[in-house]
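Backbone-to-sequence.
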């Protein structure tokens, strides 16, 4: 199975600052993933031509199942996280991760009915401060909905903004998670034109076996967004 995590930056190129959602579509189509975990997907924003990107992407990649979580609501439009799954979603949950008065953020918690059995995965976009990120991850891990689905093999993914690489060592490794995007120096994903920070990460536990993980460094990917897409190929042990 293949999962792609990608902060699409609202479809705005990281170098030319032009809105071209078709470039995002081209990059994702070439990757032929079973799960697309996207961040900064807009709805009705003037800057992105008022497009409902969640619907447009859902239609383009049909018959994949779409689940959208709008976190930021402005006077006109907003944006959030979008998941597209090749297989049915047994469960889909929206977990708010807003920390104090900071920008609203959230995590999608989903359970997919894959051919190899149920798979739990999250799609998140965490905060800019380390204190905020640590609170968000602790809140997610302690959330009753997360704990109720603990029996499933799990992938945690998305734009972590964890430029100091502390989430894995301090919070996730003690809970049995392994970081697939390690060492961080091999997974510098931002800014796309000349990446220096490892922001897009994947952690896993349970029966998940990660067979390969890499960033897409093509010219098309460098132009489409200010993040590079992260690709993870995996299987479920015993399947």
């Amino acid at each position: 199975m293949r999962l792609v995590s990608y902060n699409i930056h609202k479809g705005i190129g990281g170098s030319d600052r032009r809105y071209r959602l078709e470039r995002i579509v081209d990059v994702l189509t070439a990757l032929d993933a079973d799960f697309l975990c996207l961040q900064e997907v807009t709805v009705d924003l003037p800057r992105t031509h008022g497009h409902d990107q969640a619907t447009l992407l859902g239609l383009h990649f049909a018959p994949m199942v779409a689940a959208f979580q709008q976190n930021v609501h402005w006077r006109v439009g907003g944006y959030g996280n979008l998941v597209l799954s090749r297989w049915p979603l047994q469960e889909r949950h929206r977990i708010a991760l807003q920390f104090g008065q900071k920008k609203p953020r959230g995590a999608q918690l989903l359970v997919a009915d894959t051919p190899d059995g149920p798979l739990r995965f999250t799609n998140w976009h965490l905060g800019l401060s380390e204190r905020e990120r640590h609170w968000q991850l602790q809140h997610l891990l302690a959330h009753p909905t997360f704990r109720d689905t603990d029996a499933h093999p799990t992938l945690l993914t998305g734009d972590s903004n964890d430029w100091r690489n502390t989430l894995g060592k301090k919070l996730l490794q003690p809970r049995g998670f392994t970081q697939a995007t390690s060492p961080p120096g091999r997974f510098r994903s931002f800014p796309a034109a000349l990446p220096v920070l490892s922001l897009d990460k994947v952690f896993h536990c349970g029966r998940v076996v990660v067979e390969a993980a890499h960033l897409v460094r093509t010219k098309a990917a460098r132009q489409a967004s200010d993040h590079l897409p992260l690709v993870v190929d995996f299987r479920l042990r015993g399947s």
